[in-house]
Write a structure and sequence with these properties.
With 461 residues, the chain is mostly helical. It contains 19 helices and no strands. α4 runs antiparallel to α17.
Length: 461
């Protein structure tokens, strides 16, 4: 019982994150509650020693997470006036002090330290999921998969209720939301689509896990029908969600999941990985050309139309790239996008609506963290790529680690054209995927040596 409770810590907390952490904006009590629980898990990860050592991939993942935290803290360190005023993008701040006839004070790299602190606190749930898995070993992979599959299914049901109730449906949980579309437990319909697509490989892994325990042909057929039905429900949820991102990313996710199922019986052809990569690239390209917030209902999918639309991803990413270039090499500070972006917009195109994020996490991170952040992104992508190759090439690869490579790849691809990782829910899911890639099984200690007088027997399964 005690062991089950310990192994349920991360799956239970991940479930809470997926249910309560669906907003990318601050000011919600649910996010504060998740951060407080995360602090307790992180404290346990720091003081409790595990029986088994952390794996080498796990240590590298922890080092990358620590580097991200240090970068954020560095941006809060006060610098002398002669230093910060010489940084690109600080001319306006220095002129403001000069106009008020005030001496330049010591200031940090971040142009909005309060926003940077808030953004660092936002990372706590994801950090707790990752360290709770890698350091504490407080998880079971199959339980994490069931959590993702169950909440994705509930999201489809909730989305149907939201559609039935119309734009004023009481089933929407956030005041600022995509009213009239299915959002599930999220404020943004695109982020619900991310969860649904990420659930597909975990459903496939659950099928393979159950089939491994029941090898009869009848059971295999029944399980295949069950997982096919579950994936069909998720697919319907993606269609009624009307997210172009969900519809586009579903294709490579299903293809990769099918390859995972096929790989358990026979070797995969050499071209299969390239085919999935091509599908993924085509999906991202289609999403990039779409107007923001219109899903596949929009018809402005040409490059020329996207470039002329002030609310297209092409426009958003182009403006963000220019702002990022002006703030190199150190960036404007984590969480400062909403303050920097308006200064680069065309005044004639400005209306009541505003960009809360760049609709491209890599662009936004380049603006906010500069070259140090870009280096950390590259180091992480190298770690992720190396682990993905190692997992898929292993002779006896863990099913849930393979599913985690697909789900995390979906989130990384979606982050090119959106900001799913800005929600505690998707950030926690992504952290769980990375942790499963680093530490597929919960190693709690060394197995006790088998007694010589203990009877041995063979098991049929």
């Amino acid at each position: 019982m005690k062991s089950a409770l310990r192994l349920g810590i991360v799956p239970l907390f991940l479930a809470l994150c997926l249910l309560l952490g669906g907003a990318s904006a601050g000011g919600f009590w649910e996010n504060m509650a998740l951060q407080l629980i995360a602090v307790a898990i992180l404290f346990g990860a720091l003081i409790i020693r595990r029986g088994a050592p952390t794996s080498a991939p796990g240590r590298r993942l922890i080092a990358l997470a620590g580097a991200i935290a240090l970068l954020g803290l560095f941006q809060l360190v006060p610098l002398p006036p002669s230093l910060w005023s010489a940084l690109p993008g600080r001319d306006g701040v220095a002129r403001a002090f000069a106009l008020m006839d005030l001496p330049l004070p010591w200031m940090p790299v971040s142009l909005d330290p309060a926003a940077t602190i808030a953004s660092l606190l936002w990372l706590l749930p994801a950090a707790a999921v990752m360290l709770g898995t890698v350091r504490l070993g407080s998880f079971k992979p199959v339980w994490i998969a069931w959590v993702v599959a169950a909440i994705a299914s509930l999201s489809v049901v909730l989305g149907a209720l939201q559609l039935a109730g119309g734009a004023g449906s009481p089933w929407y949980f956030y005041r600022i939301t995509n009213a009239g579309a299915t959002t599930g437990f999220f404020a943004n319909s695109n982020h619900m689509a991310t969860l649904l697509v990420a659930a597909i490989p975990f459903l496939a892994a659950l099928y393979l896990h159950a089939r491994r325990k029941r090898r009869s042909a009848q059971h295999a057929t029944a399980l295949l029908v069950m997982v096919g039905g579950a994936i069909a429900v998720v697919a319907v949820g993606i269609v009624i969600n009307t997210s172009l991102a969900g519809l586009g990313l579903m294709v490579p996710a299903v293809a990769a999941s099918a390859l995972m199922i096929r790989s358990r019986n026979r070797a995969l052809p050499a071209w299969s990985g390239w085919a999935v990569g091509a599908l993924l690239a085509a999906s991202v390209a289609a999403i990039y050309l779409a107007p923001i917030g219109e899903g596949f209902r929009a018809n402005n999918l040409t490059a020329a139309a996207a470039a002329a639309d002030p609310e297209s991803r092409a426009t958003s990413l182009g403006i963000t790239a220019k702002a990022a270039a002006d703030h190199l090499p150190v960036g404007s500070g984590i969480g400062t996008f909403v303050n920097i972006y308006p200064a680069y917009e065309d005044p004639a195109a400005v209306d009541r609506r505003y960009m809360n994020h760049a609709h491209g996490d890599y662009h936004e991170l380049l603006l906010e963290t500069g070259l140090p952040g870009a280096l950390l992104i590259l180091l992480f992508l190298w770690w992720w790529g190396a682990r993905s190759v190692a997992i898929w090439r292993a002779e006896d690869s863990d099913l849930f680690a393979m599913a985690a490579t697909i789900a995390s790849g979906v989130i990384l691809a979606h982050s090119i054209v959106d900001y799913p990782l800005r929600t505690a829910a998707i950030a926690a899911l992504f952290a769980a995927c990375c942790a499963l890639m680093a530490e597929p099984r919960a190693r709690v200690g060394q197995r006790e040596p088998e007694r010589a007088d203990k009877a041995r027997h063979l098991s049929a399964d």
